[in-house]
Amino acid sequence: MFKRLIGDRAFYRSVFTLLLPMIVQQFITSFVSLLDNIMVGRLGTEAISASSIANSVLMVFMLTIFGGMSGISIYGAQFFGKGDMDGMRHTFRMKLYFSALAVTAGILVYRFFGEGFISAFLQGSSDGGDMQLTLNKGTAYLMIMLWGLAPFAVVQSYAGTLRESGETVTPMVAGICAIGTNLFLNWVLIFGNLGAPPMGVEGAAIATVISRYVELAVVLACTYLRLDRYPFVRGAFGSLRVPGALVGRVAVTAAPLLINEVLWSLGITFINRLYSSRGLNAVAALNINGTAWNLFCVIMFSMGSAVSIMVGQKLGAGKLQEARDVDRKLIFLTEVMHIIMGGAMIAASPYIPLLYDVGPEVQDLARRLLVVAGLSLPIHSFVHVTYFTIRSGGRTLITFLFDAVYTWAVSVLLAWALCTYTDWTVVQIYFCVQFIDVIKIVIGLIMLRSDFWARNVVENA
């Protein structure tokens, strides 16, 4: 039984060839995000809370893009496995159409309702901080970030299509260039170095927006200068047409994923809103914890992409048994790595909060949250790759029930009840919400054992 979970040398070589560029990109992104967060944290509790709240609000847009792209990418990966480049061109165009609609809607919603969204997070205790200042800074940050929505969406369209073909180096290079730009401009604009005026939180937003345009420029340059390596890009704009039958099939598959990501992100945002009822110190501590969480989850995020690509290509080629075997080994590898990563997060928990110029109350809250996050990391890594396994076979209605419906029916309801009817601390509530996902492990194991997810969705496309 145990041998079925272990791959041979060739298997791990193929996994890490695919995985390493994504891990490097994710790690650098998360590490620089941590440095960015520390820079903003040097400005005080109000500044770090403002950027944290604004980014929580923006997360809904980011995950809407992710959800729309994910449904289309199921077909893209399987078209590549089938060797159908016309099919990949069609899915690429669909991503760009979806991006245009999502960006337009996002800008309108945030422009007119953004301040109200941020204000909703500032209903708890001020803990000695300035709530109005936090609202002003958060709103200013959000309005600047709207200029970066379009390049973000277009990059996801190109980078996602490249990854579906197994090309992960180009997105990595573009990401590293963007990250370097963001880090340098943060240093210049937040604190006013090299003769620039000190702009604080607004400077951090401007740096992020500029870095997204840099990332877009690098992705486009690397793609169009090497068309021989990316045959699906050649002729992609020779026609803007996408077959109606394919649109219908993709829409049926993608709609649950899109709705899932929107509802899931709204659920997480609502949970964070509930946490904020425990005061401004809780908001700042959760921001520190969340930034560190992203750093320790870089392998988990990359493993989800690896499952989508490797399992999706096997399914598209009609090799269903091989797809099951690859998936089983990838899940086991994920769990082994995240038991280690969870331990590392716990070990680092006393030191990470010391990097921030916040009060001892915030530092102590952040330390305890980090311990809880480290303990729960193996649970969330299993749930994450299970989600991508089911999604790779186009079972998107099931992933909707597994992810968004569960979040609202269980996690949100639990957080609401604990925040409303108890006087528990944010750490106690966070612990319960994190560990309630043990139920999802049981559900996930049942679904994986049934093998119902392993199917070819492009066989007759």
Describe this structure in words.
It is a single chain. The chain has 15 helices and no strands. The protein has 461 residues and is mostly helical. It has one domain. Helix 9 (280-296) crosses helix 12 (360-392), helix 10 packs antiparallel against helix 11 and helix 12 runs parallel beside helix 14 (426-435). The longest helix has 38 residues, at 45-82. The chain is globular and about 60 Å long. The relative contact order is 0.13. The model has no long low-confidence stretch (mean pLDDT 84).
Task: List the defining traits of the structure above.
461 residues; mainly alpha; globular
Topology (elements, then pairings):
Blueprint: H1 9-41, H2 45-82, H3 85-119, H4 131-145, H5 149-164, H6 169-191, H7 200-224, H8 244-275, H9 280-296, H10 298-316, H11 320-348, H12 360-392, H13 396-421, H14 426-435, H15 438-450
Helix pairs in contact: 1-6, 1-9, 1-10, 2-3, 2-4, 2-5, 2-8, 2-9, 2-10, 3-4, 3-5, 4-7, 5-7, 6-7, 8-13, 9-12, 10-11, 10-12, 11-12, 12-13, 12-14, 12-15, 13-14
Q: How would you describe the oligomerization state of the chains in this entry? A: single chain
Strand segment count: 0
Distance between the termini: 37 Å
How many domains, as an integer? Answer: 1
SSE order: HHHHHHHHHHHHHHH
- Average pLDDT works out at 84
Quick overview:
With 461 residues, the protein is mainly alpha-helical. It has helices at 9-41, 45-82, 85-119, 131-145, 149-164, 169-191, 200-224, 244-275, 280-296, 298-316, 320-348, 360-392, 396-421, 426-435, 438-450.
